[in-house]
Amino acid sequence: MELFFDLVFVFALIQVTQFMAADLNWHGVLRGMLLVALLWWSWVCFSWVANLVKADEGTGRLAMFVAMASMFVFALAIPEAFDDAPGGLSGPVLVVGCYFVFRMVHLVLFWVVSAGDPDLRNQLWRFLPSMLLATFLLLLATRTDGAAQTALWAVALSADYLGNYIAGSRGWRIMSVGAFAERHGLILIIALGESLLSIGFGVSGLAMTWPIVVAAVFGLGLAGMLWRAYFQVSAPRAEHAVAALPPERRDRAARDAYSYLHLPLVAGILLTALGLKKTLEYVGDPGYHLADPLTGIPLVVLVGGVVLYLLAQIVFTLRTVGRFSVKRVAAVGMLLVLLALGPMLPILVTLALLTLVTAGVVQLEVRRARQEDARAHARSDAHGG
Asked: What's the CA gap between 259 and 44, in Å, rounded?
Protein backbone atom coordinates (compact mmCIF):
# COMPACT_ATOMS: atom_id res chain seq x y z
CA MET A 1 0.00 0.00 0.00
CA GLU A 2 2.84 2.37 0.80
CA LEU A 3 4.46 1.67 -2.57
CA PHE A 4 1.13 2.31 -4.28
CA PHE A 5 0.91 5.53 -2.27
CA ASP A 6 4.34 6.56 -3.59
CA LEU A 7 3.17 6.26 -7.20
CA VAL A 8 1.28 9.51 -6.73
CA PHE A 9 4.56 11.18 -5.86
CA VAL A 10 6.18 9.75 -9.00
CA PHE A 11 3.63 11.69 -11.02
CA ALA A 12 3.96 14.77 -8.81
CA LEU A 13 7.75 14.90 -9.19
CA ILE A 14 7.43 14.52 -12.96
CA GLN A 15 4.98 17.40 -12.93
CA VAL A 16 7.41 19.59 -10.99
CA THR A 17 10.26 18.90 -13.43
CA GLN A 18 7.96 19.66 -16.37
CA PHE A 19 6.81 22.82 -14.59
CA MET A 20 10.39 24.11 -14.31
CA ALA A 21 11.37 23.02 -17.83
CA ALA A 22 8.35 24.59 -19.53
CA ASP A 23 9.64 28.14 -19.05
CA LEU A 24 13.15 27.81 -17.65
CA ASN A 25 14.15 30.84 -15.58
CA TRP A 26 15.42 31.39 -12.05
CA HIS A 27 12.02 32.39 -10.70
CA GLY A 28 10.52 29.21 -12.14
CA VAL A 29 13.29 27.07 -10.63
CA LEU A 30 12.70 28.68 -7.22
CA ARG A 31 8.99 28.00 -7.49
CA GLY A 32 9.72 24.43 -8.51
CA MET A 33 11.86 23.93 -5.41
CA LEU A 34 9.06 25.35 -3.25
CA LEU A 35 6.70 22.80 -4.75
CA VAL A 36 9.21 20.04 -4.00
CA ALA A 37 9.43 21.24 -0.39
CA LEU A 38 5.64 21.18 -0.05
CA LEU A 39 5.39 17.72 -1.59
CA TRP A 40 8.23 16.44 0.55
CA TRP A 41 6.72 17.65 3.80
CA SER A 42 3.42 16.05 2.85
CA TRP A 43 5.15 12.74 2.15
CA VAL A 44 7.20 12.95 5.36
CA CYS A 45 4.03 13.22 7.46
CA PHE A 46 2.80 9.88 6.19
CA SER A 47 6.21 8.26 6.49
CA TRP A 48 5.94 8.75 10.26
CA VAL A 49 2.37 7.59 10.63
CA ALA A 50 2.95 4.57 8.36
CA ASN A 51 5.63 3.46 10.81
CA LEU A 52 2.93 3.14 13.47
CA VAL A 53 -0.12 1.80 11.63
CA LYS A 54 -0.69 -0.89 9.01
CA ALA A 55 -1.37 1.11 5.87
CA ASP A 56 -3.19 -1.69 4.07
CA GLU A 57 -5.82 -2.40 6.72
CA GLY A 58 -8.96 -0.67 8.00
CA THR A 59 -8.63 3.00 8.95
CA GLY A 60 -5.07 3.22 7.67
CA ARG A 61 -6.05 2.04 4.21
CA LEU A 62 -9.00 4.46 3.99
CA ALA A 63 -6.83 7.37 5.13
CA MET A 64 -4.13 6.48 2.61
CA PHE A 65 -6.62 6.45 -0.26
CA VAL A 66 -8.11 9.82 0.74
CA ALA A 67 -4.60 11.28 1.02
CA MET A 68 -3.64 9.80 -2.36
CA ALA A 69 -6.71 11.34 -4.00
CA SER A 70 -5.94 14.80 -2.62
CA MET A 71 -2.27 14.57 -3.62
CA PHE A 72 -3.12 13.32 -7.10
CA VAL A 73 -5.38 16.32 -7.68
CA PHE A 74 -2.57 18.48 -6.25
CA ALA A 75 -0.17 17.01 -8.82
CA LEU A 76 -2.65 17.59 -11.65
CA ALA A 77 -2.90 21.25 -10.64
CA ILE A 78 0.87 21.87 -10.40
CA PRO A 79 1.04 23.70 -13.78
CA GLU A 80 -1.43 26.21 -12.28
CA ALA A 81 -0.01 26.25 -8.75
CA PHE A 82 1.03 29.90 -9.05
CA ASP A 83 -0.66 31.24 -12.19
CA ASP A 84 -4.28 30.24 -12.75
CA ALA A 85 -5.30 29.27 -16.30
CA PRO A 86 -8.42 30.89 -17.75
CA GLY A 87 -11.67 29.09 -16.95
CA GLY A 88 -12.37 26.26 -14.53
CA LEU A 89 -11.32 26.08 -10.90
CA SER A 90 -8.66 28.31 -9.39
CA GLY A 91 -5.39 26.38 -9.68
CA PRO A 92 -3.61 28.08 -6.72
CA VAL A 93 -6.62 27.62 -4.41
CA LEU A 94 -7.01 23.98 -5.51
CA VAL A 95 -3.35 23.26 -4.70
CA VAL A 96 -3.61 24.78 -1.23
CA GLY A 97 -6.94 23.05 -0.58
CA CYS A 98 -5.51 19.65 -1.52
CA TYR A 99 -2.50 20.27 0.69
CA PHE A 100 -4.76 21.12 3.62
CA VAL A 101 -6.88 17.99 3.10
CA PHE A 102 -3.74 15.85 2.89
CA ARG A 103 -2.34 17.25 6.12
CA MET A 104 -5.66 17.00 7.98
CA VAL A 105 -6.02 13.33 7.00
CA HIS A 106 -2.56 12.76 8.41
CA LEU A 107 -3.43 14.50 11.68
CA VAL A 108 -6.72 12.64 12.07
CA LEU A 109 -5.02 9.31 11.46
CA PHE A 110 -2.30 10.20 13.96
CA TRP A 111 -4.98 11.19 16.47
CA VAL A 112 -6.59 7.76 16.13
CA VAL A 113 -3.23 6.00 16.43
CA SER A 114 -2.23 8.03 19.50
CA ALA A 115 -5.18 6.83 21.64
CA GLY A 116 -3.68 5.79 24.95
CA ASP A 117 -0.35 7.50 24.19
CA PRO A 118 -0.46 10.99 25.81
CA ASP A 119 3.07 11.89 24.71
CA LEU A 120 2.26 11.27 21.05
CA ARG A 121 -1.04 13.13 21.33
CA ASN A 122 0.67 16.11 22.94
CA GLN A 123 3.16 16.11 20.10
CA LEU A 124 0.25 16.44 17.67
CA TRP A 125 -0.98 19.54 19.49
CA ARG A 126 2.50 21.04 19.13
CA PHE A 127 2.45 20.05 15.46
CA LEU A 128 -0.87 21.74 14.63
CA PRO A 129 -0.08 25.51 14.90
CA SER A 130 2.67 25.53 12.28
CA MET A 131 0.50 23.55 9.84
CA LEU A 132 -2.43 25.96 10.26
CA LEU A 133 -0.15 28.99 9.94
CA ALA A 134 1.44 27.57 6.77
CA THR A 135 -1.99 26.86 5.25
CA PHE A 136 -3.19 30.38 6.06
CA LEU A 137 -0.11 31.94 4.43
CA LEU A 138 -0.50 29.72 1.36
CA LEU A 139 -4.15 30.79 1.07
CA LEU A 140 -3.04 34.39 1.39
CA ALA A 141 -0.56 33.77 -1.42
CA THR A 142 -3.43 32.79 -3.74
CA ARG A 143 -4.58 36.42 -3.58
CA THR A 144 -1.24 37.72 -4.85
CA ASP A 145 1.06 37.08 -7.81
CA GLY A 146 4.65 37.43 -8.91
CA ALA A 147 7.43 37.88 -6.37
CA ALA A 148 5.02 38.55 -3.49
CA GLN A 149 3.30 35.22 -4.08
CA THR A 150 6.60 33.36 -4.18
CA ALA A 151 7.77 35.11 -1.00
CA LEU A 152 4.58 34.09 0.85
CA TRP A 153 5.12 30.48 -0.22
CA ALA A 154 8.69 30.64 1.10
CA VAL A 155 7.54 32.12 4.43
CA ALA A 156 4.75 29.54 4.75
CA LEU A 157 7.07 26.60 4.21
CA SER A 158 9.72 28.08 6.50
CA ALA A 159 7.08 28.43 9.22
CA ASP A 160 5.96 24.82 8.77
CA TYR A 161 9.46 23.33 8.75
CA LEU A 162 10.80 25.56 11.53
CA GLY A 163 7.67 25.22 13.66
CA ASN A 164 7.90 21.44 13.59
CA TYR A 165 11.59 21.54 14.42
CA ILE A 166 11.00 23.82 17.41
CA ALA A 167 8.13 21.60 18.58
CA GLY A 168 10.72 18.88 19.11
CA SER A 169 10.43 15.12 18.73
CA ARG A 170 9.61 13.99 22.26
CA GLY A 171 6.34 12.30 21.33
CA TRP A 172 7.24 10.73 18.00
CA ARG A 173 7.66 7.00 17.75
CA ILE A 174 9.94 4.97 15.49
CA MET A 175 8.73 1.37 15.69
CA SER A 176 11.17 0.11 13.05
CA VAL A 177 14.24 2.08 11.99
CA GLY A 178 14.80 -0.39 9.16
CA ALA A 179 11.33 0.15 7.69
CA PHE A 180 11.59 3.92 8.18
CA ALA A 181 14.98 4.11 6.44
CA GLU A 182 13.78 1.81 3.65
CA ARG A 183 10.81 4.10 2.94
CA HIS A 184 13.15 7.04 2.46
CA GLY A 185 15.42 4.96 0.28
CA LEU A 186 12.47 4.06 -1.93
CA ILE A 187 11.49 7.69 -2.40
CA LEU A 188 15.07 8.42 -3.49
CA ILE A 189 14.76 5.62 -6.04
CA ILE A 190 11.63 7.35 -7.32
CA ALA A 191 13.51 10.64 -7.63
CA LEU A 192 16.37 8.90 -9.46
CA GLY A 193 13.80 7.36 -11.77
CA GLU A 194 12.72 10.90 -12.62
CA SER A 195 16.28 11.63 -13.81
CA LEU A 196 16.04 8.68 -16.22
CA LEU A 197 12.61 9.81 -17.42
CA SER A 198 14.04 13.26 -18.03
CA ILE A 199 16.66 11.75 -20.34
CA GLY A 200 13.89 10.06 -22.30
CA PHE A 201 11.68 13.15 -22.39
CA GLY A 202 14.62 15.26 -23.53
CA VAL A 203 14.99 13.34 -26.80
CA SER A 204 11.36 12.33 -27.31
CA GLY A 205 10.48 12.80 -30.97
CA LEU A 206 14.07 13.56 -32.03
CA ALA A 207 16.09 11.53 -34.51
CA MET A 208 18.71 9.43 -32.72
CA THR A 209 22.31 10.63 -33.19
CA TRP A 210 25.69 9.72 -31.70
CA PRO A 211 25.70 12.81 -29.43
CA ILE A 212 22.32 11.73 -28.04
CA VAL A 213 23.59 8.20 -27.42
CA VAL A 214 26.77 9.44 -25.69
CA ALA A 215 24.87 11.98 -23.56
CA ALA A 216 22.25 9.39 -22.60
CA VAL A 217 24.92 6.89 -21.50
CA PHE A 218 26.73 9.49 -19.40
CA GLY A 219 23.39 10.62 -17.94
CA LEU A 220 22.56 7.06 -16.95
CA GLY A 221 26.05 6.66 -15.49
CA LEU A 222 25.62 9.83 -13.43
CA ALA A 223 22.27 8.62 -12.05
CA GLY A 224 23.93 5.30 -11.21
CA MET A 225 26.69 7.06 -9.28
CA LEU A 226 24.14 9.04 -7.27
CA TRP A 227 22.47 5.71 -6.47
CA ARG A 228 25.76 4.13 -5.35
CA ALA A 229 26.70 7.13 -3.23
CA TYR A 230 23.58 6.66 -1.13
CA PHE A 231 22.77 2.96 -1.16
CA GLN A 232 26.29 1.52 -1.06
CA VAL A 233 27.90 4.05 1.27
CA SER A 234 25.66 6.39 3.27
CA ALA A 235 22.37 4.56 3.80
CA PRO A 236 23.51 1.27 5.45
CA ARG A 237 25.76 2.98 7.99
CA ALA A 238 23.21 5.68 8.78
CA GLU A 239 20.48 3.11 9.41
CA HIS A 240 22.67 1.07 11.75
CA ALA A 241 23.85 4.18 13.61
CA VAL A 242 20.31 5.49 14.18
CA ALA A 243 19.04 2.03 15.24
CA ALA A 244 21.80 1.78 17.84
CA LEU A 245 20.76 5.03 19.57
CA PRO A 246 18.65 5.00 22.75
CA PRO A 247 14.94 5.76 22.09
CA GLU A 248 15.07 9.35 23.37
CA ARG A 249 17.84 10.19 20.87
CA ARG A 250 16.69 7.90 18.05
CA ASP A 251 13.53 9.84 17.20
CA ARG A 252 15.38 13.15 17.04
CA ALA A 253 18.14 11.69 14.87
CA ALA A 254 15.56 10.13 12.52
CA ARG A 255 13.74 13.43 12.22
CA ASP A 256 16.92 15.36 11.40
CA ALA A 257 18.53 12.80 9.10
CA TYR A 258 15.50 11.57 7.20
CA SER A 259 12.68 14.11 7.44
CA TYR A 260 14.88 17.18 6.99
CA LEU A 261 18.16 16.18 5.35
CA HIS A 262 16.55 14.00 2.68
CA LEU A 263 14.83 17.08 1.22
CA PRO A 264 18.08 18.48 -0.28
CA LEU A 265 18.90 14.97 -1.52
CA VAL A 266 15.63 14.81 -3.45
CA ALA A 267 15.93 18.43 -4.58
CA GLY A 268 19.47 17.82 -5.85
CA ILE A 269 18.32 14.80 -7.87
CA LEU A 270 15.45 16.75 -9.43
CA LEU A 271 17.71 19.67 -10.36
CA THR A 272 20.13 17.22 -11.95
CA ALA A 273 17.21 15.63 -13.81
CA LEU A 274 16.20 19.04 -15.12
CA GLY A 275 19.78 19.65 -16.28
CA LEU A 276 19.91 16.26 -18.01
CA LYS A 277 16.61 16.95 -19.77
CA LYS A 278 17.90 20.24 -21.16
CA THR A 279 21.28 18.70 -22.04
CA LEU A 280 19.62 15.99 -24.12
CA GLU A 281 17.41 18.57 -25.80
CA TYR A 282 20.46 20.61 -26.80
CA VAL A 283 22.56 17.74 -28.16
CA GLY A 284 19.52 16.44 -30.06
CA ASP A 285 18.82 19.76 -31.74
CA PRO A 286 19.53 19.68 -35.52
CA GLY A 287 21.64 22.82 -35.15
CA TYR A 288 23.86 21.35 -32.44
CA HIS A 289 27.65 21.35 -32.96
CA LEU A 290 30.07 19.24 -30.92
CA ALA A 291 31.90 22.36 -29.70
CA ASP A 292 28.75 24.02 -28.33
CA PRO A 293 28.94 24.62 -24.54
CA LEU A 294 26.26 24.27 -21.89
CA THR A 295 25.60 27.65 -20.30
CA GLY A 296 23.23 29.52 -18.04
CA ILE A 297 20.55 27.84 -15.96
CA PRO A 298 20.88 24.37 -17.58
CA LEU A 299 24.58 24.27 -16.61
CA VAL A 300 23.92 25.49 -13.06
CA VAL A 301 21.09 23.04 -12.33
CA LEU A 302 22.99 20.10 -13.85
CA VAL A 303 26.23 20.60 -11.92
CA GLY A 304 24.63 22.39 -8.98
CA GLY A 305 22.15 19.56 -8.49
CA VAL A 306 24.99 17.07 -7.99
CA VAL A 307 26.79 19.52 -5.70
CA LEU A 308 23.64 19.91 -3.57
CA TYR A 309 23.22 16.12 -3.44
CA LEU A 310 26.81 15.55 -2.27
CA LEU A 311 26.62 18.36 0.30
CA ALA A 312 23.40 16.89 1.69
CA GLN A 313 25.06 13.48 1.96
CA ILE A 314 28.01 15.03 3.82
CA VAL A 315 25.67 16.51 6.43
CA PHE A 316 23.51 13.35 6.51
CA THR A 317 26.54 11.18 7.28
CA LEU A 318 27.82 13.66 9.83
CA ARG A 319 24.45 13.70 11.63
CA THR A 320 24.03 9.94 11.73
CA VAL A 321 27.49 8.36 11.79
CA GLY A 322 29.44 11.36 13.04
CA ARG A 323 31.90 11.19 10.16
CA PHE A 324 32.94 14.11 7.93
CA SER A 325 33.71 13.10 4.34
CA VAL A 326 36.78 14.96 3.10
CA LYS A 327 36.56 13.09 -0.22
CA ARG A 328 33.09 14.46 -0.94
CA VAL A 329 34.17 17.95 0.01
CA ALA A 330 37.04 17.63 -2.49
CA ALA A 331 34.59 16.38 -5.13
CA VAL A 332 32.32 19.38 -4.46
CA GLY A 333 35.32 21.67 -4.94
CA MET A 334 36.17 20.05 -8.29
CA LEU A 335 32.56 20.33 -9.44
CA LEU A 336 32.48 24.03 -8.57
CA VAL A 337 35.56 24.46 -10.76
CA LEU A 338 33.74 22.56 -13.50
CA LEU A 339 30.76 24.89 -13.07
CA ALA A 340 33.04 27.88 -13.62
CA LEU A 341 34.70 26.29 -16.68
CA GLY A 342 31.49 24.88 -18.14
CA PRO A 343 30.72 27.82 -20.48
CA MET A 344 34.09 27.20 -22.17
CA LEU A 345 33.72 23.41 -22.57
CA PRO A 346 31.70 21.36 -25.06
CA ILE A 347 28.46 20.00 -23.61
CA LEU A 348 29.54 16.37 -23.81
CA VAL A 349 32.87 17.15 -22.11
CA THR A 350 31.08 18.88 -19.24
CA LEU A 351 28.71 15.93 -18.81
CA ALA A 352 31.56 13.43 -19.02
CA LEU A 353 33.66 15.27 -16.41
CA LEU A 354 30.66 15.60 -14.11
CA THR A 355 30.04 11.87 -14.31
CA LEU A 356 33.69 10.90 -13.91
CA VAL A 357 34.32 13.13 -10.88
CA THR A 358 31.20 11.76 -9.19
CA ALA A 359 32.17 8.20 -10.08
CA GLY A 360 35.67 8.73 -8.73
CA VAL A 361 34.63 9.90 -5.28
CA VAL A 362 31.94 7.24 -5.00
CA GLN A 363 34.38 4.47 -5.94
CA LEU A 364 36.87 5.68 -3.32
CA GLU A 365 34.19 5.69 -0.64
CA VAL A 366 32.81 2.29 -1.65
CA ARG A 367 36.33 0.84 -1.43
CA ARG A 368 36.84 2.35 2.01
CA ALA A 369 33.45 1.03 3.18
CA ARG A 370 34.35 -2.48 2.01
CA GLN A 371 37.70 -2.34 3.78
CA GLU A 372 36.02 -1.23 7.00
CA ASP A 373 33.46 -4.03 6.70
CA ALA A 374 36.25 -6.57 6.15
CA ARG A 375 38.12 -5.34 9.25
CA ALA A 376 34.91 -5.43 11.29
CA HIS A 377 34.21 -9.02 10.21
CA ALA A 378 37.80 -10.00 11.02
CA ARG A 379 37.50 -8.51 14.52
CA SER A 380 34.18 -10.26 15.00
CA ASP A 381 35.61 -13.61 13.94
CA ALA A 382 38.61 -13.15 16.19
CA HIS A 383 36.40 -12.25 19.14
CA GLY A 384 34.17 -15.25 18.45
CA GLY A 385 37.22 -17.50 18.36
From this structure: 6
